[in-house]
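Hi support team,

I submitted a single chain yesterday and got back a structure, but I'm not sure I'm reading the token output correctly. Could someone confirm the output below corresponds to the sequence I sent? I've pasted both exactly as they appear in my results page.

Thanks,
R.
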Amino acid sequence: IMLTVKNKKIYAENGSFLKIIDCPKKITVSDLQNKSDKKLLCKSCNQNILDTEYMSEKELCQILEKDKSTCLKISKLNPMFKFI
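Hi R., thanks for writing in. Yes, this is the structure output for that exact sequence:
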């Protein structure tokens, strides 16, 4: 499975829309505090952020299908994402 990121939108392998990437606070990695392997805490808005480095594509898709407002940390080096 590979997720596609195009125009700040994440799509599943089958083309279904999963999420718009849009942080109103424009935070950076330095604004995040580690909570666990998969979770970070945003110091700016006190929201949990999922670190996609430690997740499977299937797990991430299931989470986003339930809640598109879930905050994510995505690295352009993460092989599960294809940026176009």
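A quick pointer for reading it: The chain has a mean pLDDT of 92. Let us know if anything else looks off.

Best,
Support desk
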